Amino acid sequence: MDPGNPVDSQAVAHRLASVYDQPEHPASARVVRGAAWIAAAYNEPGLWLMGGALLIALGMVTVLLGYIAIEGLLAFWPREVVSLQLETGEVVCGEIVRSERYVPEKQALNELPEVLKERAFQAIRQQGAVRRYLVRIGNYELTGEHFRWVSEFEIAGASRNLPSDIAVFERRAWGRFYGFPAAFVVDGKIVAEGVAQVWQEFERAHPQVLSLWGELRRLERVDLGRINRRMEEARLSCREVELRYGEDSAEADEARRRWQAEQAALEAQAATVEAKITKLREEIGRWAIQVKTADGKEASLPVGEIVRAYLPNRLNWWGKFRVYLARLWEFVSDEPREANSEGGVFPAIFGTVLMTLLMALGVAPFGVVAAIYLREYAKAGLVVSAVRIAVNNLAGVPSIVFGVFGLGFFCYTVGASIDQLFYAARLPSPTFGSGGILWASLTLALLTLPVVIVATEEALAAVPNSVREGSLACGATKWQTIRRVVLPQAMPGVLTGMILAMARGAGEVAPLMLVGVVKLAPELPVDGEFPFFHPERSFMHLGFHIYDLGFQSQNAEAARPMVFATALLLVLIIFTLNLAAIYLRARLRRRFLGARF
Amino acid sequence: MSHASTRPPETGSWEALQRELFEEDLKHAPVIHPAVLKESPIIEVDNFSLWYGTKQVLYNITMAIPRGKVTAIIGPSGCGKSSLIRSFNRMNDLLDGVRYEGDIRVDGQSIFSPSQDVIELRKRMGMVFQKPNPFPMSVFENVVYPLRIDGVRNRAVMEQVCRRTLEAAALWEEVYDRLHKSALELSGGQQQRLCIARAIAGDPEVLLLDEPCSALDPVATAKIEDLFDSLAGRYTLVIVTHNMQQASRVSDFTALLYMGRLLEFGPTVEVFSRPKLRTTEAYITGRFG
Most CB atoms within 10 A, among A144, A192, A279, A528? Predict the structure, then answer.
């Protein structure tokens, strides 16, 4: 409004006067008007909005977790194996993984044989699309693929039968094999024919072969591994002498001689172990099972290669449940095989839990000490405020940046220095100078530090000053007061911070990819070899495992159920870790605070 | 709290009359009864003034707390009683922007001298606060806290001290069977007696009690007042209270503080029966405050 306009300002004055001069509303009028306003006054629309937002958020989380839980839990359930007779005369046999409706491309339709084209057109005419099934056909060495799409119109008539004699073989390599057991072979001689007899023989021989296989693996891993490590140690001690006295010195010559002697002794040992291994292999190779596939091809499967076998269409509910439990147990307790798409994730579980606990151990002292300084010692002022803002901002730094920092600082700076000082003989291959579980834990500790600092500061601030005064009046020093009175009382709050930090840290993947997580770790970071804990070793992590299965796997369809199962497992592990921390916090609360009226 | 003379007097109001009385009394203040001067002093306050930031809360206080006696410091809210008592063991050091002039001496030693160890000073003076502040630990650990911070490890010594002090604080009978339960489960009165036990566990010379009963019910208050009688012979007690009946019941000497100034200080009987200043009379008869 133009202030210079006298008419306008007069109008405003008039309106204001009319507002102020209005007589007060009679009581009844107020009630009526109030009734119309009451919803807004009590924030009812807002209540609906807020409640609705919460409901939507909770609903989405529930749906996500439910989907992961269902898919993850069903991943190991043994399916029936169907045999499909195609119009072309082919027989497709395998597990139907899923089905979908689709419209084939024009060119693909035109290239179809006449019989099929007619059927396809009819299906499209009637239903607007064609149904197709994804069948896990296995038998990779014969077919060259693990999965195959079969369209409804390709299947002859309604021929979809469940052959009761078909068997599923889960193997150590090449994926699953579907076929009819034809004969059982021992030492090249057929000892049984016919499904029932073959299966009886197989079930008798399999546990024995599995234990032989276990023995073989132990020899390869433990015994040969130990000999290899000794060879490496001998080489390193020789190298150390060379580094200390120079390569041309008499001491170095002496060391080289000793090394060669030791090397010869160790090679002899290795040769005996290898002889044993060869013998075991031959022993295991005695048993084989001859299988005929649904399309009439024959194959011989060595029993030693078979992890698990069952007759899916003969299993009742309990039998299926046993297969399910066996697979589930393998999943949580065994090592992965077939590029992680089969087998277990135990190393990843171990790595995730160990890394999270190490991270908690790393972040707790740093965070608490920093918070104590900020809250109890530092004089409030510009600097402290700036530090506080910086700490809060640190929580917002993208995690991959922490990964880059961890790689640059821990691996390439600290780790490289450690290598130069203590592991010079091993150079140029790095020991601490590359990613490892210690560096990964410390990187995540840095990442979660702000969470712990903020939570601890809040917990310290919540301790009443009267308690501090009481302690100081007893003649306690400031440090005694903090250690004996303030910190115990703030402990539940500190643990809340730790819970938040662990929840964040355990699920983090991006920074780990730079500082020590690998797709397949040959050894666990903790084992029976001195010094039992190897902080420099790279490790596996469930979060990275999910990424690897979902996006890096060559056999993506086979890895799909594993993605869900692994995701479910990761959620459960984080949940369990949090539950443990919450339980600890509740115990501390009971101990320090007692019942509060 | 602002200076009385900076505000223009409003005639005809009760506040104005009170201010007038006070202005006149100030010309004579502080009135110190001769009986006080005969006592041997343990804490001597010498022309002591205190500021919180720019706000002055104590004005030139000079008084001597008699050794082994119970001294009550009374006065209306905000008169500076707590600030004074907190100066005795330098608890005011913890606050930002505190400034003082003058001196306080304990056994003739200035507590502000650089050679004075604050921790040592506080160990000589047990302090009990307005709100019970037991630590979040067991009853036993609360009582032996002063021993713990002195590095005492001997369990037998601690148990002995715990029992002796809890008995002295008239709490033993009530808690002997739950010494190792959380102290926060005790009632308010029990918590306050526990704080008194904790204060005397360190074997101090002086007990500073900052309105120790103001957060308690009458029954708990009565128990604690009884306790003062039994403690009186062994320690010098300084009690800050705004409860005149309490002051008259438990103390040997009474000091009245008003607007940061010491008005009258004398034997409790004399101060309560024959006050020398009219402000004192008005205050103890409950006409203001």
Answer: A192
B91 and A473 within 8 Å at the Cβ level: the answer is yes
Please name the residue of chain A whose CA is at the shortest distance from the CA of residue B143.
A474
Which pLDDT value is given to residue B246?
Answer: 87
Residues 6+ apart with CB under 8 A from A539: A347, A350, A351, A354, A355, A436, A437, A440, A516, A517, A518, A521, A524, A525
The vertex-B236 CA angle with B234 and B238, nearest 5°, equals 140
Strand pairing class (B261-267; B253-258) = antiparallel
Which chain B residues are closer than 8 Å to A484 by Cβ? 135, 145, 148-149
In chain A, domain spans: 6-74, 81-176, 177-331, 346-525+537-593
Q: How far is the C-alpha of A175 from the C-alpha of A287, rounded, in Å?
A: 20
Instruction: Say whether pLDDT at B188 is over 80.
Output: yes
CATH no. of A81-176: 2.30.30
Its pTM surpasses 0.95: no
* A486: contact with B, CB 8 A cutoff: no
Q: Which residues of A touch B94 (CB under 8 A)?
A: 468-469, 472
Q: Which residues contact A311 (CB under 8 A, 6 or more apart)?
A: A164, A165, A166, A167, A168, A195, A199
Q: Domains plus CATH for chain B?
A: 15-106+206-289 (3.40.50.300), 136-204 (no CATH)
Distance CA B116, CA B205 (A): 16
Check if A485 contacts B (Cβ < 8 Å). Answer: yes
| Pick among A465, A474, A486, A587 to test the B interface (most B CBs inside 10 A) | A474
Average pLDDT score, chain A: 85
The encoded tokens of residue A202 equal 């197989």
Contact B198 A464 (CB under 8 A): no
DSSP track, A290-341? EEE-TTS-EEEEEGGGEEEEE-GGG--HHHHHHHHHHHHHHHHHS-EETTTT
For chain B, say whether A475 makes contact (Cβ under 8 Å): yes
Q: What is the ipTM of this complex?
A: 0.87
Instruction: Mark yes or no for CB contact B94/A472 under 8 Å.
Output: yes
pLDDT score at A596: 41
Report yes or no: B131 at the A interface, CB cutoff 8 Å. Answer: yes
The confidence band for A17, taking pLDDT boundaries of 50, 70 and 90, is: low
Structurally, what CATH architecture does the domain formed by A346-525+537-593 represent? Orthogonal Bundle (1.10)
Verify whether the Cβ–Cβ distance A473 to B126 is below 8 Å: yes
Mean pLDDT of chain B: 86
pLDDT tens-digit readout, A176-211: 999 999 999 998 888 888 888 999 999 999 999 999
Nearest CB to A475; choose among B123, B133, B184: B123
Q: What is the pLDDT of residues B61-91, one digit of tens each?
A: 999 999 989 999 998 888 888 899 999 989 8
Q: Does B195 touch chain A (CB under 8 A)?
A: yes
